Amino acid sequence: LPGNAACSSPSPSTSIRVNAMSASGPVYEADAEAVVRRITPPLDRARHKGQAGKIAVIGGCREYTGAPYFAAISALKVGADLSHVFCTRDAATVIKSYSPELIVHPILEESYSVSDGERESVSSRILTEVAKWMERFDCIVVGPGLGRDSFLLDCVSNIMRHARQANIPTVVDGDGLFLITNNLSLVEGNLLAILTPNVYEYKRLVQKVLNCEVNEENASEQLTALCQKIGGITIMRKGKADIISDGKTVTQVSTFGSPRRCGGQGDILSGSVAVFASWARHFLLTNEYPTEKSVNPMMLGCIAGSLLLRKAASHAFEKNKRSTVTTDIIEFLGKSLEDICPAGH
Ligand SMILES: NC(=O)C1=CN([C@@H]2O[C@H](COP(=O)(O)OP(=O)(O)OC[C@H]3O[C@@H](n4cnc5c(N)ncnc54)[C@H](OP(=O)(O)O)[C@@H]3O)[C@@H](O)[C@H]2O)[C@@H](O)CC1
Ligand SMILES: Nc1ncnc2c1ncn2[C@@H]1O[C@H](COP(=O)(O)OP(=O)(O)OP(=O)(O)O)[C@@H](O)[C@H]1O
Ligand SMILES: [Mg+2]
Questions:
Q1: I need a labelling partner for 54 at 20 to 30 A (CA). Which of 81, 103, 175, 219 fits?
Q2: How many angstroms is it from 2 CA to the middle of ligand 1?
Q3: End-to-end Cα spacing for the chain
């Protein structure tokens, strides 16, 4: 996909800069608006359905139906053409009833619905079902509202391995992080993997991988070490500032969003990052300027997603103040992107 001609025309002098520094230096703010402008594809009349992105969320169980919905609908609102959800049967009808826009596959199973004797056949049926679709996706998001059922997580591990073999970028969030923290080989060395831990999820990762506690004084060094230890994957540590690293560089987005910390904002973020990472990957794959080839598209996806969520949260808070909830923020994803990168006609 070419860069958005309505926002900037591709030329060597406008190459993507993330203002990233080496691990030992200070953390610089990314030029996130420039990143969004550069990687967002134009709305070209010649393009057909699917070319702006096909995303899948693997998540949604008996307890959680909001999280996968937030992630999947955010992907559409940012600009993807198709958004799928792979969830359990109980969750599917509920998610479908939130929105007719989503394509919902009720295929995952939790332990309570599968007898011991059936496990192997059910597990292989689930993988076959998802594998049918996998190559069509530009990115998958594993974990929002997935739950922690052991059989379900085993099946999702198979799906992750399959995505990796098929070279599909994978954002791991929520319970997906619980899964990979206990099974690091699922993401180790996968340069197309992005982890988006919140404060608890990051703590668990640091304890497991680095065998120490989170150190705020050396936050960027610790994050860089974590990425390196997991084989150069990209991690966005969410918080007051979202700090992003791939083990080589580290940067941050700290544009103020909202003082409301309602649940679900991380889900918006994971769906948005999936779309931007796909756009960045297509942009860099088709870009003729060698200087930009060295930029990590997964980092760009994180930078762009973080900025957009923060802008949308800020608009939503301005309007709704203390009653701001996740749905209000999703409403402003479109305006926030439009302000940075107008769609034109
Ligand atoms: N509207 C919705 O549907 C939303 C749904 N959401 C979804 O919720 C899921 C969990 O995500 P979260 O962010 O609450 O987990 P997190 O920060 O690790 O934990 C905070 C504390 O809780 C505990 N704990 C958590 N999960 C547990 C479990 N299954 N069983 C037992 N304990 C658990 C945890 O304790 P610990 O693991 O340390 O023992 C920690 O102290 C995830 O799928 C997310 O996508 C959210 O996206 C929000 C909107
Ligand atoms: N202390 C903070 N100050 C400002 N913004 C924050 C703060 N903590 C988180 N955020 C923003 O909220 C977004 C979501 O981060 P959060 O830590 O709430 O994720 P989460 O716990 O995974 O959310 P979810 O409830 O969806 O699971 C981050 O991208 C960040 O922009
Ligand atoms: Mg979360």
A1: 175
A2: 39
A3: 18
Separation between Cα atoms, residue 71 and residue 146, nearest integer Å = 12
254 Cβ inside 6 Å of ligand 2: no
Residue 179 φ/ψ region, left for φ over 0, alpha for ψ in the -120 to 50 degree band, beta for the rest? alpha
Q: Is 28 assigned a ligand-binding role in the annotation?
A: no
Q: Is the shortest distance between the CB of 266 and ligand 2 below 6 Å?
A: yes
17, part of any domain: no
Question: How far is the C-alpha of 135 from the C-alpha of 93, rounded, in Å?
Answer: 25
Nearest CA to ligand 2 atom 28: 238
Cβ 256 vs Cβ 314: under 8 Å: yes
- Please report the ipTM that was assigned to this predicted complex: 0.88
- For the chain, what is the radius of gyration of the CA atoms? 19
Q: Is the pLDDT of residue 233 over 50?
A: yes
- For residue 47, the model assigns a pLDDT of 83
Q: Is 142 exposed, middle or buried (0-12, 13-18, 19+ CB in 10 A)?
A: buried
Q: 9 CA distance to ligand 2 centroid (A)?
A: 33
Residue 55 lies in a domain: yes
CATH number, residue 245: 3.40.1190.20
For ligand 1, atom 4, which residue shows the shortest CA distance?
67
Amino acid at 13: S
Given this model, what pLDDT does residue 163 score? 98
* Total domains, the chain: 1
CA–CA gap between residue 72 and residue 4 (Å, rounded): 24
Whether residue 344 is predicted with pLDDT greater than 60 in this model: the reply is: yes
**What's residue 7's pLDDT?**
44
In a domain, 20, yes or no: no
Query: Does residue 262 have a known ligand-binding role?
Result: yes
Q: What pTM did the predictor assign? A: 0.93
Which domain does 64 fall in, by range? 26-40+49-340
Question: Nearest residue CA, atom 10 of ligand 2?
Answer: 239
Instruction: Tell me, yes or no, whether 274 lies in a domain.
Output: yes
- When pLDDT is averaged across residues 225-251 and rounded to a whole number, the result is 97
Mutation test of ligand 1: which of 173, 175, 207, 268 has the most ligand atoms closer than 8 Å to its C-beta? 175
Would the pLDDT of 255 be above 60? yes
